[in-house]
Predict the structure.
Amino acid sequence: MGQDISPFQAITISRRAHELKAAGQRILHMEFGQPSTGAPSAAIAAAHGVLDQEAMGYWESVPLKARIAQHYQGTYGVTVDPRRIALTCGASPALVLALSTAFNPGDRIALARPGYVAYRNTIRALNLVPVEIPCGEAERFQISAAAIAALDPAPQGILLASPANPTGTILPNAELAAIAAVARRIGARLVSDEIYHGLSYGPAIHSMLEHEPSAYIVNSFSKYFSMAGWRLGWLVSPEDGVARTSAYIGNLFLTAPSLAQHAGLVAMDSRAELDGHVEVYRANRTLMLEALPRLGLERIAPPDGAFYIYADISRFTDDSLGFCLRLLEETGVATAPGVDFDPVEGQRFMRFSFALSTEEIREALGLLEPWFRAQPRR
Ligand SMILES: Cc1ncc(COP(=O)(O)O)c(C=O)c1O
C-alpha cells in the first residue's frame, strides 16, 4: 500500500488566488514555477498545421528523440543513443519512471532539504525512503559530495537538481563530478533533475551525464521551453535501464501527447525567442534582488538560475502558509510557503517565482514593499 503524502500548499494558495480573481481582484501569480509566456510562436504554428492533417493517435516522435540526443551532443558534448530517451508527459512522470525502475521498495534516496515538494512525496508514494540532507544558507541550499559521503548507512540513490527549486542555486561542475565519484564509491544510483537547464544568470550549467553515464536524467519542456501545460518531458535512462524503462512507460503511461511532441521538436530550435525570455527573467531577478532588502528580506541566496528567490521570513513569522495566505488576501500577490519545500525549517521561508513580465514584477514589488514595511517584526 502507498504511503500518505502531504498536499502541495502552493496549490492551496493558487486556488484561493483564483477565487479572488473570479471575484474581481487583481492577482499577481508568483506562486507556481511556470512561465507566464506561451510556447514559442513557431511551435504554436507547427501545432496548428498538424492539427488539420493528423489523427493524433498514440505516437513516439523519432525525430524528437533524435533532436534531444543532438542537444546532449551539442550542449554537453555527451553522446546519447536516442533509444535511451523516453518521451513523457513532463518531468513528473519521468521522475516516477526513474525512481520506480531504478530502486527497490525500502531503498533510501538522499536529497537536499529544501527541495522540490514532489521529490519527497513521490519517493514516499513509491515506498522508497527519503533521506533529507539539511542544506542551509552556508551550503547555498545544495547537496554536496561530502554530505552524501557522510550518510550512514549509505543511500541506494541520490536525487539532485541543479539549478534547484526553490532556490535556483547551481552546483559547480567540480561538485557534480565529486558527487558522481561518491555515488560510484558507495554504489548509489544518481537521478539528476535537469528541468531548469537553459535558465542561468551566469554560472555554466552542466549535465550529470558528463560525469556518470549510468545516471538517470529527468528533463522537461515546462520551464526553459515555456510549455508547461503541453505536458512534455523526457527521461534519459542508462543502457542497463532502457528495457525496463520502456516496459514501464508502455504499461504505466503509454505515450506523451502527440501534438506536444510535434510542437516540442520545433521549440527546440526556437532559441532566440526562448533566450529572450531568459533576458526578461534576468531583469526581473535584478529588480527583485534590489528590492527585497528594502522589504526586510536580506537573508536570501541569490539565485544562479531557474526563476525563484527563496527568502528567510523568520523576522516576520513562524507560519509561512498563514503568512503567504495573508499576503495574498491583502495585496493580491500569490507566493509559495516554505513548508512545501522543507517540512522542518520551511515555516520561516517563502518562495517568489519571477517568471512573469517585468511590468508585473514592478507592480508586485509596488504592492509588496508597503505591505512588508507594515508587518510587525518578531
Ligand atoms: C524541480 C522540478 N522538477 C520537476 C517538476 C515537474 O515539472 P513538469 O511540469 O515537467 O512535470 C517541477 C515543476 O515545477 C520542478 O520544479
